[in-house]
Amino acid sequence: MNESNMTKLENFMYTYIRDTVTHVGDNVLSWDVVNEAYDGKGNLKTVSPWYKIDNYICKAFRTAHTANPNAQLFYNDYRHASMAGQYKTKSDAVYNNIKKLV
Q1: Is residue 86 part of a domain?
Q2: What is the CA radius of gyration of the chain?
Q3: pLDDT digit string, tens, across residues 71-83
Q4: Residue 25: inside a domain
Q5: Separation between Cα atoms, residue 21 and residue 73, nearest integer Å
């Protein structure tokens, strides 16, 4: 997506999340709201169009929660559960940013 109008892009994200959650209704108990937002160095990936939206992870979770307050909401990523080693930087970044959301 090459949208440059941030308001349009943000509204698209809100609409997509609300429509998806509304469509499946209460049949879903949990949902991966954001997937693979961080690179291996713990930085937000800039290849995602959502990266352009200020604080998009928080906005995505809030929108999903509003659409279905009973669903368990998750952040999903790969190689981020490491306390040491080469993935520690990413693990720490994911943990610290998700902790802020809670």
Answers
A1: yes
A2: 14
A3: 899 999 887 676 7
A4: yes
A5: 11
